[in-house]
Amino acid sequence: MRHTISVLVENKFGVLARIATLFAARGFNIDSLAVGETETPDISRMTIVVRGDDRILEQVEKQLNKLLDIIKVIDFKETRHLERDLALIKVKSAKNNRSELIQIADIFRAKIIDVSADSVIIEITGNEEKIQALMNMLRPFGIKEMCRTGIIAMGRGVK
């Protein structure tokens, strides 16, 4: 079972390490991890995506809530929410196929943010399926390099 967990933490040294250690000690591999300040500079939001047994993850959530510096833990499993990921994809490109790459980027509402003699860099924001679909379309051109931010998530509606 896939879980997207949001953890509000005090923005202090060592918090990320303690949380990552807690997951690792329980045998959970973190599929995605994104951390950044919130609207309050002394609070950060960690968005963690893991796959695993619901029962064990429930124990991990309880242990997270006991850690110092943890403000709130939310498992979006049964909550209406939005998820987004950002990817930069460097693709082989020559003059004869650039227009095709531009069309593909447009279809996915992606942006070409850099052009060189032998490649273009495409920026895409969306859910995992959208990013994967774009990568599948670009693979025949030759993906030279790719990096992703990791998933961020936020509940829908009133806070």
What does this protein look like?
- The chain has 159 residues and is of the alpha+beta class.
- The chain folds into two domains: 2-79, ACT domain (Alpha-Beta Plaits); 82-155, ACT-like. Chain A, domain 2 (Alpha-Beta Plaits).
- The chain has helices spanning 15-25, 54-66, 98-107, 128-138, and strands at 2-10, 30-37, 43-51, 70-75, 81-92, 111-115, 119-126, 143-148, 152-155.
- The strands form two sheets. Strands 5, 6, 7, 8 and 9 form a five-stranded antiparallel β-sheet that branches. Strands 2-3-1-4 form a four-stranded antiparallel β-sheet, covered by helices on one side.
- The chain is elongated, with a radius of gyration of 19 Å.
- The two termini are 26 Å apart.
Task: Give the secondary structure arrangement, pairings included.
Layout: E1 2-10, H1 15-25, E2 30-37, E3 43-51, H2 54-66, E4 70-75, E5 81-92, H3 98-107, E6 111-115, E7 119-126, H4 128-138, E8 143-148, E9 152-155
Antiparallel strand pairs: 1-3, 1-4, 2-3, 5-7, 5-8, 5-9, 6-7
* The top level CATH class name of the largest domain: Alpha Beta
Structural class: alpha+beta
What is the N-to-C succession of helices and strands?
EHEEHEEHEEHEE
Q: What is the rounded Rg?
A: 19 Å
- Which percent bin holds the helix content? 25-40%
Task: Note the main sheet.
Answer: 5 strands, antiparallel
Low-confidence stretches: none
In short:
The chain is of the alpha+beta class and 159 residues long. It has helices at 15-25, 54-66, 98-107, 128-138; strands spanning 2-10, 30-37, 43-51, 70-75, 81-92, 111-115, 119-126, 143-148, 152-155. It is elongated, with a radius of gyration of 19 Å.
